[in-house]
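Translate sequence into structure tokens.
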Amino acid sequence: MKSILRFTLYLAILSGVSVVYAQESGADLMDLSLEDLMQMEVTSVSKKAERLQDVASSIYVVTSDDIRKSGATTLHEVLRLVPGYWGVQDQYSNVRASVRHSPTSNSIDGTMLFLLDGTPMQDLMSSTFYFQNFDIPLSEIDRIELIRGSGGSIYGANSATGVINIFTKDPEKYDGITAEASGAAPGYVATSLRAGGKISEKVALSGYGKFRYFSGFESMAGKDEDGNSTVETSDFVENFDESIYYSFGAKMNVDLSGASNLSARLHYNARNQYEYTNSYQRDFVFTRDDQLYGQEVSASRIVANLRFDHSFSDNHSLFVRASTNFENDLYEAAGGMMINNGIIDLEVQDNFSFGINDLSFGFNYRMANFDITDINDPEYINYVNPETTESLKGAFVQNKFKFMDSKLNLILGLKAENYSLVNDKYYLSPMAKVSAVVSEDLTIWGGFTRSYTTPGFNTTNVDWFLFQTPTAAEWNAALTPQVTPLVEQAVYDQAYQSAIEAGADDATASQAAANYVASTEGQAVIAGGVQNEIQNVIDGTPNIAVKNGSETVPTDFRTLELGVKFTLNDMVQVNSTVFRTQIVDGLSENPGGPIRQNEESTTQPGRYANYYLYGNYVQGYSVGSETSVRVNPVSGLQLEVSHSWLKTEWEYQENDDFDVSSITSDPTPKPSVMPNHVFRFKGNYDLASGFTISGSVIYASKFKTSEYYVYGTERYVNIVENEVFQNRDGATIVAANDSRTIVNLRVEKRLLDNQLVISAFGNDVTNSGMVAGTRRLQNVTLSQIGAMYGMGIQYRFK
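Result follows.
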């Protein structure tokens, strides 16, 4: 209740501003009927326009209108309203997200493909999307098409469980200049300027610029989750939640002829932020503390593409696209390192229709460049080939057979891909789907797809010393003062006992023992004994490291889906899908302890360790459903309620690195990394007075977030600390596994014929501050997220 009252107070007194949006042209989507929405065209499923009602895929469209009314300040806040998506924040801009997939505890599976205007934006280190290094004005987004399930033969690599395709606004649909500014508590400010339109009959241009500053939520440096002090002076003296973002973009459309078009897209963003990383050095065995690194980071991302479209006829078209995604950033794991990774991608697709056939075929060639530099602790982590160039090659064919005047459709496809980072083999991804358009208001569809996820650099090249034993000299320096008195006493006791056994009295035996200890022979025996004891410690405390298994291959996903879409009386729209995905060659570390003993390092010759292996060691399945019901009960009122269910189970599979027959441990996290159930409700109400009230509630069942943390040294527990020391001395569980409720509110007022819009919002309003997630392999210390309240203004110049 206090949060709601606080939100109301902000409506009245806050003088800041929040990002709000206006349609550049065309009718507001809220004015469209549900039937009209089902007639909306989407392009993500086959990379060409199709009616939403007809596609044989579970696709959810987030429109610019949805984005505006969500009050979101980041891409993640937009996506978390989509059934089937879930993401866990450990900082404001740091998110671990997934669609239809709950991985094992320490795996990073790139099963979800992110695209910006058709350009892949995967992080090459882990094949996932790095939210922290991305920021464009949300008002620049025209729509987001989210495929829940495999991208099929069209997309291939890393689209096994989902495709998130972000389309920015077409330069031809701009109408002048739009200025926006926003401000919110705590410490959020954002401003942007967007302009564009046709400059001639054949050329349209647009561009944008944005600045965003966030001071961070309340710091947890030196505090526990309740805000109590845990150390006298914290090591984290800099505000690592504070960030400054800059972004700009430019787009161009050129009508080369009536049949040919050229388009270009450029998006650039930069981030300045102080970041901490840590490693566990050789002295960890003595100090039980980590080595902290702090540095100013200037990160950037460039996403660009050039596309040529040509229509040979109404039934035949072709496009060629060249695109790139380059990232320069601090990779936070294992002490941190700078990455300068990027791709250059060439894609060609030909589409033509004849008779009952709607045929598409094409190929793509992607060059991936890896450049890892400035590793803070190269003894702690290194890579077999930190600078290398690899390639991904693929070709596909897909045909849609249209029967009964397109009322019954059969879609068959096949894609072949090879990723040189893994091996020379081509992996085949077949697809077979069918859709039955029973009526204009009812479509039933189902099918099978097989997809693969290509491993990231961390699953093919890494050599990571999780625990580093000191050198012999360091052991001697640390242990000699402790061991010597013990050995001296043992030598003394032995000499004393020998004298007693020879018939000496106590005083004589004591003197004889003291003389022996002081003698040259006695000192030599003591020195030898000290060395033996220290050597026993050294032998019993080896380096512990992790490297890739004997062979790493793509993870295989085989999905069966069945879905239905229908509308009732133009008032109720229902979209429901059930699915089951069989997973083979999933990624995980080996169970138990290290399975390779005293092996030489792959990156540091002459250095040895007991190795864990990380590879294709698990298999399992995911089963689930997504159901959303959208209702327009009266004019201006739109309601949506949805439920998504996901259950993933894992088991160890046969492999070449270890025998699984005697393994009893379960690799399935309890609770799961992604929640089993997520319920969502959102509503928008347009009032005749120019006001719009919007709100949403998200509830997720219990999911895994907890981790062990040592408050005294402000660090997460080392991943093998319990194995080395047989304890987690001083550790406390933080971010306890629990359910999560998120409440968002927004009010806007439109003035001057919608030319001026003023709004106020509250995001996550019931959150008074919490450690929402932990990632001990990347994060160094605790960070929290909380509620954000703001207001804003937007003006469109005509």
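Note: The chain is about 15% helix and 50% strand.
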